[in-house]
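Subject line: Sequence and fold of a protein, written as structure tokens
Body of memo: The sequence and its backbone structure tokens, given next.
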Amino acid sequence: MVTLGRSLLLAGLAVRAAAASPQAPLPDAIDDRIALLLAEMTLEEKAGQMTQVTLGALVPDHALAPGRLRNAIVDRGVGSVSVRGGPALPAARWRDLAASIHDLAAGESRHGIPVLFSLPATSGAGFVSDATFFPQPPGLAATRHPRLVEQCHAVMGREARSAGVPWVRGPSLDVARQPRWPGFAESFGEDVHLAGVLGAAAVRGLQGGNPDAPFPVAAAARHFLGAGLPSSGRNHSQVLLPERYLREYGLPPFQRAIAEAGLRSLIVNPGEINGIPVPANHNILTRLLRGQMKFEGIVAADWQDIERLHTTHRVAPSFKEAVRLAIEAGVDLCSCRPDFQFTGHLVALVNEGALPEQLLDASCRRILRLKFDLGLFEEPSPGSRKLSGPGPADGRQLSLQAARESLVLLKNEDVLPLPPEARILLTGPGADSAASLVGPGTFPFRDRTATANSAPPATVRQAMEAVHRNGLTSFVPVIDPDGRFDPEHAVQAAQAADVIVCVLAEPPAAEPASPIAPLALPDEQRALVRSLSFGKPLVVVLLQSRPHLLTEIDALADAVLHAGRPGPFGARAISDVLTGAVNPSGKLPFTYPRKAHPLLPYDHKLSDTITEHDGKDGFDPLYEFGHGLGYTSFALGPLELAATDLTLADQIEVSIGLTNTGSRRGAHVIHVYIRDLYASVAPPVRRLRAFRKVWLDPGTTEPLAFRIPVRNLAFVNARNTPEVEPGRFEVQIGKQSAAFTVR
């Protein structure tokens, strides 16, 4: 039924509801509608809006269960539903399920408040079988192509909304400096600046950038704050870091996404920071996020994270007390079990005077605001209406482009590209594995029988055999029919080959998996490389979500290609690079360690590198952040500064020329690093402050100019505030450097 209050609510804006864009309404008009709605809502209805349950709990086996649905949506007033498991379904099927739930909410609930659906979207619209999937975020970071990252996420957002889902869980804005951490696979790597630039690009792509774009999607960036820096390497575990480090390495990507891309929501880090779980940390969620960062969007606690305050972190003696701690800290919405204990505890806490109802009002106001801004009150599901943005063919082409640009050639001793008439032995556990290409977080990984918009993921074997139709590529598996590792036949076949291509693969693992221990590929894969290293050219392709210890493998191989998790078009991209059809241009978004200790990022402190007898050569990575080879050569001209005596109000104007000195077209990435020579807090050896990817034809030169505000050189000082101290600095590009002074 529809009450008189709801009728007045809608009628009050009937004049403009039909013609106005729901994405760009008059702010005071929406505020008035929300105020009127809140005044009519009961305490139980407010608590329901702050409750999120999984779709599987309401729609078991994706078949409508009217009793469960009515209990949740009508009786309990649940305001949010998340898709977290089960098989992948076509967008039309998801849209039908969403429409059924919306119809129930509109027709039978007291106020007709639409339901907010969410699903994961880190490399594609998760669980949507006809969606387009892309390389995992570390691969997108390797492209060094912000516009491409934005376009890929625009496809993800459009395809999520076409499935009736306006709220997506992504991107991850965690700066990942702990390679054992399972969430590394969803990060943009180890650098603060790179994660900030690409994170903001991803949010813009998902949310539409243009406020008048039809059917926008709200992004929920993860995991605020510090989740990428776990002390143990384990997921959801504690972070032991001073506040200064959290502000220096954890905050900037979130700040950038909020300030530059209008981020609409955040998912809280479920772990602890210095012993205090973030979902219960008022200083982080209210004083820092709301007060200092001026964030006005939704703060959500992920699946069972509030319950874990009681069961895991043990800072609350009961689930009820955990609810109180989380809401007081600043959580707006809880993803929880479908037993509605959270909802009941929330109501009881207010009735008992343990929580002020004003906190629920503030959270509901933010939740309702998002629903209005997403146009859900006007049109909960886009139905069959045509959506703007790239179509399926464009999405597939973007996925292929991203896969090609994500591949990083680590080593090449004149083996690649492969000669056209070479007899190739293809082997290794990843050579005929589709799951190894797409990785966790995508439905092809979970559901091997599903069919994607981008077609069933071709394997490297299929892609290589398609290129060498004359039978020059021979595939010999190393996994026998019983699933046992058996490399003997591959080693025998290698004797007759001209070149051996061995595709290694990190064993598939999905969150919340334990960390890698040790940080190395399995023993049998390393033994396979040793068996294949007997004098013939050996090419190793790496399918993995993070940097592993590769020192032994690298020493035995003549060429090494880091492919990451390149997505469903990754096999074709790998084949294109191996055969020379594509010139690789990817650059590492992280550092490959040479040894298990120390695991240092590129922007470490000088003191981290001190060795015996006070040597300063302790940073000895196998491959450093930013490394990546290609099939052509580039030369840099002189590095020049427009001025060397600057103030805080100035910009650092850097110019340099880039020439393609090779024989084929290629792309090169210019990384601009700046080093603070002396500071009151020990400075890193260098920090990335700008980058640009440039495509050049052979023999051509392009002058490049960078303008970096001096204020961007701020570091977090001992008082935990950003500051640029006067002093001497140094710009570094390649092997060149130039000094300047800030007064």
